[in-house]
Amino acid sequence: MPEQGVNMRDGYSGFKFFQALEPQDVTAGGATNGISVDVRGYQTATIIVNVGTATGGGALSADNRFQLMLEHANSDADGSVNFSEVYPSQMLHSVVGTAGAYSTLNSGIFQSIASVTSYACMVFAVGYIGPRRWIRLRVSEVGAPSTYSMGAIAVLGMPANWPVQEPQVL
């Protein structure tokens, strides 16, 4: 709480919000790529993932799990964007271990979802401190995990031009 007589600071004008993964049921059978987010013009980028409940069959374990990955890219001369995994040194997150459980050095994994009871209805976040222009969330699976509802947003901050949000007139 701010002190009495001191106004709260506005966070709305200094951040830009983007859909990073449309809310959906994520199932086994192939990776799910999030929406590409252009970070040019901002000094901070954070992906926030909202994991809902299990909505389908399967099981979660070390052999049947989802992995939340952060990928980044630059645009080629022809304008195409080719994503690759972010190195652990370019991610800030709260997973135990250098790059999270079940990850390798350059896998981009910042969270593994391997337990129905531990990870249902949770929020995970990863900050990006890499040099590339584009980022996206990728949800991959190992084995045949349960179907989970997930969605994500990207929050970009410290813009070169402020304010980034304009109040909506209704």
Could you explain the architecture of this structure?
It contains one helix and eleven strands. With 170 residues, the chain is mainly beta. It has a single domain, classed as Jelly Rolls. The strands form two sheets. Strands 2, 3, 5, 6, 8 and 10 form a six-stranded antiparallel β-sheet that branches. The relative contact order is 0.36.
Concise structural overview:
By secondary structure, the protein is mostly beta strands. The protein has 1 helix and 11 strands.
Which structural traits does this protein have?
five-stranded antiparallel β-sheet, single chain, globular, mainly beta, six-stranded antiparallel β-sheet, 170 residues, Jelly Rolls, 11 strands, 1 helix
Question: Helices, strands, pairings?
Answer:
Layout: E1 15-26, E2 32-33, E3 37-38, E4 42-54, E5 65-73, E6 84-85, E7 91-92, E8 109-113, H1 116-119, E9 122-128, E10 134-142, E11 148-159
Antiparallel strand pairs: 1-11, 2-10, 3-10, 4-9, 4-11, 5-6, 5-8, 5-10, 7-9
Distance between the termini: 30 Å
Specify the structural class: mainly beta
Percentage of residues in strands: 35-45%
If you average the pLDDT, what whole number results?
Answer: 82
Order of helices and strands: EEEEEEEEHEEE
How many separate domains make up the residues?
Answer: 1
Strand segment count: 11
Helix content: under 10%
CATH topology: Jelly Rolls
> How would a textbook summarize the main sheet?
6 strands, antiparallel
Number of helical segments with 4 or more residues? 1
